[in-house]
Design a protein that fits this description.
By secondary structure, this protein is of the alpha/beta class. The chain contains 5 helices and 4 strands. A 4-stranded parallel beta sheet has the order 2-1-3-4. Strand 3, helix 3 and strand 4 form a beta-alpha-beta unit. Helix 1 crosses helix 4. The protein starts with 5 loop residues before the first strand and ends in a 6-residue tail after the last helix.
Length: 168
Amino acid sequence: MSARLFSVLVLCTGNSARSILGEAILAQAGAGRILAHSAGSKPRGEPNPGALRLLARRGIDPAPFRSKSWNEFTGPGAPPIDLAITVCGNAAGEACPVFMGAPLKAHWGLPDPADVAGSDAEVDASFEQTWHWLDLRVQALLALPFETMERAELSAALARIGQLEGAA
């Protein structure tokens, strides 16, 4: 295994909901194996309040999470990215910038919990469902020996993971 952690960038257009949750789950569940990041093509500027409430309920400090552009992960000085995962249809269809490290790409499309209108309880339930679906995918990734897999084999496994329950 290399001296550095496997670096994963979770992408969504606004980087306010699904990608923030994905970053949090990867960082927590993948501690010691994964360095997690998130970003968006058109960042909203701040995480969705529903995402922040969920992180707090899960005992994760929401303060470090911010909505940021994927441009932070391009060019000199950017961290190398081993895997870029899109979690929304918009980001999957956009032309991604060139990330340092020529990462693998995977699509784990999920419905956007930020699109749910209603009471805080209804919105929170939608975010909980998204957390569940993302957690299933992260656990499937962590069950793989991804650090030693061939790129083609890992790419195929990531595609299968993207089709798990909740795929949009």
